[in-house]
Amino acid sequence: MSITPLRTPEGRFAHLPGYGFRPRYVAVPDARYGSLRMHYLDEGPREAPVILLLHGQGCWSYAFRDFIAPLTAAGFRVVAPDYIGFGRSDKLLDTEHYSFHGHLGWLASFLDALALREVTAYLFDWGGFFGLRLAGERPELFGRLVLSNTQLPTGQGGSGREWFIRWREQQFALPKFPQGEMVDSGVVRKLSPQVIAAYDAPYPDEAHKSGPRRFPMILPIWPDDPACIANAAAWDRLGHWTRPVLTLYSEGLAGGSMGPEAIQAHIPGARGQPHALLAPAGFYIVEDQSAELAARIAAFAAA
Questions:
Q1: Which residue from 26, 81, 87, 226 has the fewest beta carbons nearer than 10 Å?
Q2: CA 278, CA 177: separation in Å to the nearest integer?
Q3: H and E: helices and strands count for the chain
Q4: Which uninterrupted H or E stretch holds 218?
Q5: Which helix (H) or strand (E) holds 126?
Q6: How far is Cα 75 from Cα 48, in angstroms, rounded to an integer?
Q7: What are phi and psi of 134, to 5 degrees?
Q8: 23 by DSSP, 3-state: which?
């Protein structure tokens, strides 16, 4: 017998600033819950080339509210899902019900349900953790990749892993697991209270945060993690990826563990592309540089 997930009341999404898009839903299979309702935005001409927007930690599709108008005006169809546990998508009852493998399966099922192929994918943060893995395993899904502040975690360690473990401990020590506050702490231009509240809208209480709370614990960081082993195999295959790849990273990440250099050096499709380091931009570049990102993504997708 399947389990019934939590579902955020629709009233929580009324009158969010800059976010007047029609909600759409698709069912994705799950062995424990039977099926789960996954929310997504789908704007622009149905037959137009698709730009897929994948969000990161602390976010949901609300993060892309300022991308949609310029991308659809440029002639594209824009699809932006909320991962299971995030945004308007179903929330699982137990944090242990989430896994890196499970998220990959739900996302792949979502792309198959919408018959999305050869899309231009914008991969921010966790969007890259998932998207790069899928690109290595199912290259037919993506025609072009645009990456911001991400990588493919293969458990190689270094200072990035140590920083992440400390950050994870700090977040879990807080009385409430932050979402809007997390995004606000990672931007140069501070968010308004209304925008912070919009990031928090999907989570009326801590029970609804099972997905965000679990994300830091399922990030593959040790080389013997099965997800790291599979990611490493996907990374090897990306060493032969010749489709176009563009990196648009926050300037402050250059040269670090989350910088663009490994992507540019490893993936053949990244060679000769108009890469950019953008400033001013904190980690949440999708807030600090939304207009610049949208313009560069549209130009790259149309090239």
A1: 226
A2: 29
A3: 11, 8
A4: helix 210-218
A5: helix 126-137
A6: 7
A7: -65, -35
A8: coil
Q: Residue 72 has what pLDDT? A: 98
Assigned token pair, 166: 């400390």
Token pair of 251 as six digits: 């300037």
Non-local CB neighbours of 269 within 8 Å, separated by 6+ positions: 145, 241, 242, 243, 244, 245
Structure tokens at 52: 């897929």
Of the candidates 145, 129, 139, the one whose C-alpha atom is nearest the C-alpha of residue 83 is 129
Tell me the CA distances in angstroms from 230 to 69, 97, 139, 226, 276, one per residue in order.
37, 20, 15, 6, 29
CA distance 26 to 293: 28
For residue 119, the cross-strand partners are: 142
Q: Are 220 and 147 in contact (CB under 8 A)?
A: no
Q: How far apart are CA 249 and CA 86, in angstroms?
A: 24
**DSSP state for residue 6 in the 8-state scheme:** B
**Torsion sign over Cα 218, 219, 221, 223:** positive
Dihedral angle computed from the Cα positions of residues 58, 66, 196 and 189, in that order, rounded to the nearest 10 degrees? 100
> Using the 8-state DSSP alphabet, how is residue 9 labeled?
-
Position 157, amino acid: G
pLDDT in tens, 4-30: 999 999 999 999 999 999 999 999 999
Instruction: Return the structure tokens found at 89.
Output: 């998508």
205 burial level (CB within 10 Å; 0-12, 13-18, 19+): exposed
Domains of the chain in start order, with CATH, are 10-302 (3.40.50.1820)
Q: Is 153 in a helix, a strand, or coil?
A: coil
Task: Tell me which amino acid residue 115 is.
Answer: A
Nearest to 302 by CA among 259, 250, 251, 246: 246
CA gap 72, 74 in Å, rounded: 5
pLDDT beneath 50, residues of the chain: none
Pick the closest to residue 212 from 70, 92, 109, 297 (CA basis): 92
Residues whose CB falls within 8 Å of the CB of residue 170, separated by 6 or more in sequence, listed in order: none
**Whose CA is closest to 137, among 229, 53, 237?**
237
pTM of the predicted structure, to 2 decimals: 0.97
